[in-house]
Design goal:
The protein contains five helices and seven strands; from the N terminus they run E-H-H-E-E-H-E-H-E-H-E-E. By secondary structure, the protein is α+β, with helices and mostly antiparallel strands. The N terminus is likely disordered. It has one domain: Gcn5-related N-acetyltransferase (GNAT) (Aminopeptidase). The radius of gyration is 15 Å and the shape is globular.
């Protein structure tokens, strides 16, 4: 599960379910990742109808998280809606974020692989979107290396995104 692209790889010491006690630290990692992800309040983190919400710890520190919405989520995101209209029952990776001090150490890859293994017995596809404007080259390269297949783009005016899908298992 280690990202072979990085010379400083480190498999997370623990992948685990997010608890209420983790939410503030998750919110802080999320905030440090804007504009690659949207801002989220603690209230919003508690609201999501989730298919998968796990964290990675390294050296007893929160290293990152992945939040994946259930296909039936009541979520008005235009990205979630776009994917829902085109793919039947697809879990939607709303965000993956890794603390800057843990970048390029296989954290996001470990979370994605764990998410795919967790939802793969119930779903055939998993999807996400990545910013084209403002351009997020790190995320685009990561998702491409992970085998994501471009599935379309959408320009929302303030942001343009590329949708990516994976057939499960991957």
């Amino acid at each position: 599960m280690v990202d072979q692209q990085s010379e400083h790889t480190a498999v997370p010491a623990r992948l685990g379910d997010v608890t209420e006690a983790d939410l503030e630290a998750i919110r802080q990692i999320n905030e440090s990742s804007v504009p690659a992800v949207n801002r989220l309040s603690l209230k919003q983190l508690r609201w999501f109808t989730l298919e998968y919400f796990r964290l990675a710890e390294c050296s007893s520190r929160l290293a990152g998280f992945l939040l994946c919405l259930a296909p039936e989520a009541d979520y008005d995101s235009p990205n979630f809606q776009w994917l829902s209209e085109r793919y039947h029952r697809v879990p939607y990776v709303d965000r993956v974020a890794v603390d800057l001090s843990f970048h390029r150490r296989g954290i996001a890859k470990a979370l994605y692989l764990d998410a795919a293994a967790t939802v793969g017995d119930r779903f055939r596809t998993i999807a996400c979107e990545v910013n084209l404007r403002p351009r997020n080259d790190v995320s685009l390269e990561f998702h491409d290396r992970l085998g994501g297949r471009p599935a379309g783009t959408q320009d929302h005016g303030y942001v343009e995104v590329q949708y990516m899908v994976w057939e499960l298992p991957f």
